[in-house]
Structure formats: C-alpha cells, structure tokens
Amino acid sequence: MTQDTKVVPLTLRCEYGENPRGIGEANPRFSWKYSDAAAGARQARYRITVGTAPNQGDLWDSGEVASDQSLFIEYRGKPLRSRQAAFWQLQTWDDQGVSTKSGLGMIELGLIDPDKDITAKWIQTDLVGDEKTSPAVPCLRKTFDLQNIASARLYISALGLYEAYINGKRVGTSHFRPGWTDYNKRVQIDTFDVTALLKQGGNVIGALLGDGWYCGFVGFRNKRNLYGDRPRLLAQLEVTDADGKVTVINSDDTWNWSPSEIVSSDILMGETVDARKKVDDWASNDAPAGDWKKVAVADKPKAKIVCPKGPPCRVTDQIKPIADPALDPTDAQKKRWIFDMGQNMVGVVRLKVKGPAGTTVRIRHAEMLDRDGSMYVENLRDAKATDYYTLRGDTNGETFEPKFTFHGFRYVELSGLAEPPTRDTVTGLVIHSDMELTGHFECSDPLINQLQHCIQWGQRGNFLDVPTDCPQRNERLGWTGDAQVFAPTACFNFDTAGFYAKWQDDLLDSQGENGDSPSFAPTFDFHHDGGPAWADAMIIVPWSAYRAFDDKRLLETHYDSFKRYVDFLEKGNSIDLIRCHPDQAGWRGYGDWLSPDSGDPGRAATPRDLIGTAYFARCAFLLAEIAQRLGKREDEMAYRDLHERVKAAFVKEYLSPGGRLVGDTQTGVLLALAFDLVPKEHRARVEKQLVNLVHDRGDHLCTGFVGTPLLLPTLSAIGQTELAYKVLMQQGYPGWLFTIVQGATTMWERWNSYTKDKGFGDAGMNSFNHYAYGAVGEWIYSTIGGIAMDQNAYKRSIIAPVPGGGITSAKCSVKTPYGLLATDWKDAEKSFELTLIVPPNTSARVTLPIDAKATFTVNGESPTSSAGVSKVEGNAFDVVAGKYQIRASK
After folding, report:
1. Is the pTM here over 0.85, yes or no?
2. Is cis: bond before 178, omega within 30 of 0?
3. Phi, psi of 682 (to 5 degrees)
4. Strand ranges (DSSP E) for 437-561?
5. What gap in Å lies between CA 62 and CA 126, rounded to an integer?
6. Which of 773, 714, 697 is nearest to 740 (CA)?
7. Which of 462, 510, 820, 886 has the most CB atoms in a 10 Å sphere around its CB?
C-alpha cells in the first residue's frame, strides 16, 4: 500500500446500530467498517475516544491499540449512567502508518436502572374485553405547561401496544411497540428525543393503547387475555430547560382517557374503525371537552423493565396491485372486489375511499385464491384477518391504516364500497423488523432467482419482532425449530444481530426450571420441552449469530442457560445418552416435521430418538466450542467428553457393524454425516447409503424440516455437488422448484401446499409463508454464489463457486460487518471469469472451479506476481482486501 492511500472509516456502530438512543448496556461496544474501495486495506492500530462533548476524550481514551479488530470493542472508561449521551470518534492506522480520523458517532443510554430511574406509574382504563372479544382502543392524554425548553426525552412502554403522540404529532415511526416479550418476566421501554415536538406554553402528551399480544388472541388456542385482562401504559417525559432544570411529566392518575374510533383491534382477528367516533385533535390542545374519564393507576408488574436490543418494526416497503381490481366471480351481488398485490406479504392495507357517512367497508385478506376465483381463507383457521372501516363522510375522501394488527396476504377483498374501486384504492404496507438487507443473489436461471426471492420475502414476512412460523393464521409464534434451521440463511439475508440478541432473551425467559427449552418463545401459559431440533435452538441460533457477527457477549450472557440446557439433555431427557429413548415416557418431539413420507404407512419415518440423540451430540459439541471461546477450559473438556460419549452411544444404537444406519431415511443419514457421528471406517458406506436414498427417489429430496437444511450441504461435503444440483433443479414434487412453478412468491409450509392439478393441501395446517425450507439459501450462497465463512463475520472468507445445474453465471454478495464481499462469475465452454470484491481488513481463500493445472490470471497478471495474491497452490490462492478480475482457461 502506498503512503497516499488512506483507510477511511465508513460506518460507525455502537451495539447493533448507528447512533443508537436508549441502549441498555453500561459498557457498550463499538464497531466500524471501512471504505469498500480501499485496495489491500488492513488495520494495524486503532484509538477510540469517548467524551461528553465532541472532540473530547474525558470519558474514555483507549490509547493506540495494536490490533486489526474492528467489531464489538468494549467501552472501558468512566462508568456510564442512565440517560447519558456521549460522542465517540475513531482513529485508525494501516500497516503503512497512514492515519485517518472518523466523523463523530453518538450514543445515548436509556433507563438502565429502572428501580431508581422510573417514577412514572402504570395506568389503565375501564375498557376490558372478555375471552372472545376485544374492547375499543382507548386514547389517553395529559396536558401540561413548559417554558424555556432545551431538550426532552420520552421513555415509554406498555403491557400491550402503544402509539404515542405529542401535540397531535406521532412520536417515532415504529409499529407494535414495545414488542412481544414474556410480559410476566420482561417488558421493553423505548426512548425518543421529542424536543422538536414540544412548544412553549401548553402541551399535550397522548397515547393509543392496543391489546396486542398482551391481552389479545395469541397462538392456536383461540384464547385471549393470556398475560392480562387489559393493556397498560407507562410514560415518563423528561424535559430539560436552558438552565439544566428537569421537569418530569409522568403517567399517573392525572391522565384522562376516552374511547377512540378504533372499536376493536386484535393482531389475529383484525381491526374495526368507525371514523364517525373519531375525536379530532384528541392529542392536542384543540381537543373538544368531550366525556373524558380519569385513568386508574395499576399495580406495578413483576416483569423486569429493560431497554430494547432488536430493531423495531416499521413499514419498509409499499406495494401496489399488479392489475385492476376484479369482481369476485362467485358473488352474485357483484359487490366484492379482489385486488392482486402480486406478492405474498405481511403488513396492512392502506385504504383510500370516498362515500356517505355510515358506509362500512370490509377488508379481507388471503394468501391464495380458490379455484373459483374467490378468496381462499380456510387455511387461516380461527384468525378472521378482517378489517372494517366505517366512513365519516368526508367529501375529500378518507384514508384508513390499521394500527394494532397485521396480516399475511397477497389478495385483498373489499366489499361495501359506495363506488367501484381502482388500483389506487389500496396500497400494501410491508411491515417487519427493520433489519438491513445484507444478502443478494441472482443467477442465469430465473427459477432459482425466484426461489431466492421467496426465501428473502419469507424472512421479511416472519421476522416481525420474533421469528414466527407463519404470519397469517391463528398461530404466528416464535417456533424454535423453524428458527434454528433457518438461522445461517437468515444471517446472510439480513443484519439479524440485534434481532437474535433480543430473541435469545426470549428463549432465556422461556427456559424451564429443569433447563428444558420450549417449542416457541416468547411463551405464555403453554410450556413443554420443544424436543429434538426445536429446543436445540437454545444453543444453535446464538451460535449461528455469533459466527455471522462475532458477538461474543451473546455467548457470555447466555452461557449458564446453555449449560443448564445440555445438562437437561443428559440427565433429564435421555437414557444411556439416547435422547427421547423408546423406553422414555412422555413427549419425544416433532420428528422430521412434514416430511413427504409423514403419514405414509409404506414409508419408514426417521426415528425420533435418532434425531434427538444426533442433536444432543451437536449441542454438546457446540457447547464445548463456546466454552473454548470463552476461555472456560474445564467446561470445554467436560463437554468434549460428553460429545464423544453421546457420539459413541449413537454409533452403538444406530449403526450396524457393517456400517449401515438404521431407519434408512434421508434425514437419518444426513444427521449422522452432517453432525460427524460416523466413524471414519464407516463413512464411505454411509455416504453411499445417502446417495442411494436420493437416487431411490428419482434424485428428489424426501425430507422435512429437520433433514432439508442438511441435504445439499452434506451432498457437497461428500463430493456429490452434481447430485445436489440435480435435487435442487427438480421441478416435480417434492422440491424447491416445484413450489416455484406452482406460483410461489414466498416459501411454503408444505412441499405440496398447493398444486395446479390437485389444489390445496390440508387446510388445518397450510401456510404459504413459512420460511423453514428457505434454509437452502445457505447452500445457494456458498456453492452457487461461492461465498462462505471461514472466520467469524467473514474476517476470512472461503470463495469457491461451483457451477452446475445448467447455471452459467451468478452474482452473490453480502454486506459483512467489515464491508461488502461479492462475487460475479461467468462460466463458458473454454473459460471461467470471476470478479471478486474482498472487504477491507479481511482476507479470503479462493478456489477456482477449474483443473488444478489450468492457467489463470488475476488482474491481467500471473497470480504469483499479482498484487494482493499469495499462497498460490494449483487452482487455489489467498487474497487480501481489494477487487480482483480473475480469468481462467479450461
């Protein structure tokens, strides 16, 4: 690197975001990325200064640290307190001594000591629903006077959902706050800078209060009030004047409330609004006197109040119908209009209508149309997923957007309209946790591109504060099995670091006293061991997140829960180290969920104890790896020993002396190979068994939730990538492209959720937005795209694209924590071309899909003389940060 080349810090992050406000870490961590264009860039030293004002280091000065680390550097300065704001700046040096300073970053702590920091009271209204009916949404308000305003912060939470207002203007842009947690154990409190919303003199603070997950319908049991009987609000507005004096406006018995125009609202059932009941300007000083009542002060909940870690839900996209609305062909009255949004999505519909006062428009949602062209809603089960809007009769038209519900849908049906609609009548508002999109993949095959589209949209639809199984029916729970199989792909698609950090706290809250882990988190009054592949999310998901983002604190924070879980597997969930032993009473797990052979008496199912024991071994192995990284040597040795003992028990129980795995199913063999449970002397036989099992099905998969994520990676690992491509490219049932040719725009729960010739699958459990089978994305990125991780967070990458399946070109990229890592390759008859971008401060090992004796050039030169290239060994070589044009002759 020449002296005039500078390594420029590009992005400053603290914890999981840029310039975060309301963080809950007294020792926050700093990270940074460099400019993607810095060829050969490598950090040699860094210095972080943190101060109470810009360009000061009065809180902490790290001094010059000789290190190439740039992720999660922990603050080690003067103790930080609640509400503290600080500025931080970074200076770095490259290995040539070139120094560059960054711009300023900001951090602001939330209320990290709630017992001392919070003086507000929890308040509630008289509006209470019963076990089947939700009440009206109340609007709560308080008036107050201010003078000489310098700054203001609003700390706000709810048991239920809130939407806050100051002087008639909404606070923030997030939805479904404060998010879903086990409200018996933990509730999040948000922080907002509301300085610009306040004014000299009279002010009003207000909030709408929805049932949400707290007391609305949750899950598949058709019950409400699982955490409480009505929502509650906690609000603390702190205003600092120019002299430093702080005035606190608390939620207390001086607040008033009135029913809003939201007649009822429920996440699963939908929202009903009667605009004629709207109290205009209710959150401002212009509000009419009305019939306002005094709120009641509620008992303080036992739940711990914490600052949020994950991103809030927001509207991230808007979708218009792809065609003019059409009348439902089965409607003789010709009053039901159907819109095709062109994409199975999650969120709500913005409705723009005009008509006489009292006109009620019904808005129904569905993922599919039935064969007769009507809305297919049978798969929604008890979820009505229907909104109603009654017009107030505004001559200029009216707009309706539901506030406290969401739906999974592609099709929208409107009825009750005063006049025929147009495309502009509806807009789909896409809502999910506001994670940065980090992964991109496209190739020469349009069906694979659509599969990638489905994978990412499946994640968008189901990563809504928790990783749900599905977003449309009466379920929408954070199912652990789905989450653990999909986690590696999820971390490629989006920046899920904060999302998973929050959900791991949900898993911790849901852990049983005996160490077991449930089927879904958050939980309510329904707890049991989730069983093999589900409960194991307790360890597998944080391990995947740690690998993707190098967040060691995630492991440190939850290490004790990991130990309790693995100890439960050994002492409470196995006999002779066989988990879910046939002689064991009680629950034995879900098996290879929704395998095509499920329920077929002529086909053997993968033994549940085999699945359980394989995952037992996997968790013991991962816990040993975690202990090693945390420097817990004694624990590491203990869990490595446990892993070896479980592995030996597995071999004894499930592997014949001749080296054949019992059960003879694709999933069983995949578990044994993928989790390295087969002794070396028997591996070739078991690998052949897997190949034969795939050939026996006509080179189709025959796996469910457990086996499917392992199939293609395992085939590639045993040198059968050509067969893996054959399985991937199958357009017949069962397989990924089968759903694509049936018209999928998201991943489906079943391989045959719908077929053009037979119609719909079992309506009792038939989601068209279910991301688990999208776990194939990990193989697509690593094998077709050629991008895989060697060291955490892609500090060192493995670049090894493997063309196949008739694919002649592909582009793949991931915005790693260090910067953009990207491949762009073209495979021709006589040549292979690859454009590679390696982010600053990282390196990669490149292996080209050519004969080891073939010739190739890097940036037009011999690889041995090309800048940035080293350790050339046949068709493989190392590279440092930079952009490389590689051309190989075949």
Report:
1. yes
2. yes
3. -110, -5
4. 439-443, 463-464, 466-467
5. 54
6. 773
7. 462
Could you give the residue ranges of the DSSP H alpha helices within 138-223?
A: 212-215
Half-sphere exposure of 502 (CA within 13 A, CB side): 31
8 Å CB contact between 842 and 70: no
Q: Bin 352: left if φ > 0, else alpha if -120 < ψ < 50, else beta.
A: beta
Q: How do beta strands 169-170 and 293-294 pair?
A: unpaired
Q: How far apart are CA 801 and CA 788, in angstroms?
A: 10
CA–CA gap between residue 765 and residue 751 (Å, rounded): 12
pLDDT of residue 36: 67
Question: Long-range pairs for 449-452 at CB < 8 Å and ≥24 separation?
Answer: 450/740, 450/744, 450/745, 451/736, 451/737, 451/740, 451/776, 451/780, 452/777, 452/780
Indicate the residue type of 806: G
| Phi and psi, residue 206, nearest 5° | -150, 170
- Cα–Cα distances (Å) from 401 to 272, 398, 405, in that order, read 11, 10, 10
Kindly list the catalytic residues: 475, 749
- Alpha helices, DSSP H only, in 16-127? 114-117
Over the chain (890 residues), the average pLDDT of each successive run of 10 is: 56 96 97 82 95 94 97 97 97 89 95 97 96 94 96 98 98 98 97 98 98 96 93 98 96 97 98 96 88 95 97 98 97 95 98 97 98 96 97 96 98 96 98 98 98 98 98 97 98 98 97 95 85 98 98 98 98 96 89 87 86 98 98 98 98 96 95 98 97 97 97 98 98 97 97 93 93 98 98 98 98 97 96 97 97 94 95 96 95
> How far apart are alpha carbons 624 and 618 in whole angstroms?
10
- What are φ and ψ of residue 262, in 5° steps? -80, 100
Distance CA 148, CA 154 (A): 17
Encoded amino acid at 335, one letter: K
CB 328 within 8 A of CB 374: yes
Record the tokens describing residue 840, joined without a space. Answer: 């600053």
> What span, in angstroms and rounded, lies between the C-alpha atoms of 717 and 700?
18
For residue 816, give the nearest of 845, 778, 842 by alpha carbon: 842
Q: Which two three-digit tokens encode residue 30?
A: 């700093």
CA–CA distance, 383 with 400 (Å, rounded to integer): 21
| Confidence (pLDDT) at 855 | 94
> Which 8-state DSSP code applies to residue 437?
B
For residue 302, the 8-state DSSP code is S
Alpha carbons 843 and 791: distance in angstroms, whole number:
10
Question: Comparing C-alpha atoms, which of 713, 710, 707 is closest to residue 663?
Answer: 707
| Beta bridge mates, 30 | 14, 73
Q: 673: which 2 tokens? A: 């190979």
Residues 782, 441 contacting (CB under 8 angstroms): no
| Residue among 763, 756, 769, 810 nearest 787 (CA) | 810
CA pair distance 146, 144, nearest whole angstrom: 7
